[in-house]
Q: What sequence folds into this?
C-alpha cells in the first residue's frame, strides 16, 4: 500500500512526538494566516453563493487555509516516514536506552546544590555591590580628580 509507514513498529514514540509537535506548529501557522487574511476585504467574497449559509462561507481565505492544512498534513506524514529520518530516530532511541540516567534522589541532591550555590553567589554579589556603592557615595567626586592630578580645588 502506498500509505504504509516505513518500519511501523520501530521509533513510534519519536515519530509520534515529532508529528504532534510539527503538526501543532504548522496548524498554528495556518490559523494565524487564516486570521491575517481576514483583514483583507477581497478575501471575504463568498464563492458558494450562500449555499452553506452565513456561518460557513466558502471564500478565498477558507480555501487557502484548507489547501495549506492539507499540504502541511502531507508534509508531516512524509517527514515522519522518510527512510533516513526513521533510521536516525531508530538509532537515537537505541542509544538512549544505553544512557545511565541518574536516580530521583541524585537529581534532587544535585538540584539542591545548584540552588544553594546560586543563592550564596547572589548574596555575595549583592553585598559587594552594596559595599562598592557605599564607598562610591562617600568620595567627594567634584574635587576627587583635581586632587588626584594635583589641580586641587
A:
Amino acid at each position: 500500500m502506498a500509505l504504509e509507514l516505513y518500519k511501523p513498529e520501530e521509533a513510534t514514540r519519536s515519530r509520534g512526538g515529532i508529528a504532534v509537535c510539527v503538526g501543532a506548529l504548522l496548524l498554528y501557522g495556518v490559523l494565524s494566516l487564516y486570521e491575517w487574511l481576514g483583514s483583507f476585504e477581497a478575501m471575504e467574497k463568498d464563492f458558494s453563493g450562500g449555499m452553506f449559509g452565513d456561518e460557513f462561507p466558502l471564500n478565498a481565505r477558507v480555501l487557502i487555509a484548507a489547501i495549506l492544512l492539507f499540504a502541511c498534513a502531507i508534509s508531516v506524514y512524509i517527514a515522519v516516514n522518510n527512510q533516513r529520518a526513521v533510521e536516525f530516530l531508530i538509532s537515537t532511541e537505541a542509544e538512549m536506552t544505553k544512557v545511565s540516567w541518574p536516580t530521583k534522589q541524585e537529581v534532587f541532591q544535585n538540584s539542591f546544590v545548584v540552588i544553594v550555590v546560586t543563592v550564596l553567589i547572589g548574596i555575595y554579589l549583592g553585598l559587594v555591590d552594596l559595599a562598592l556603592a557605599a564607598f562610591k557615595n562617600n568620595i567627594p567626586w567634584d574635587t576627587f580628580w583635581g586632587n588626584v592630578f594635583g589641580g586641587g580645588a
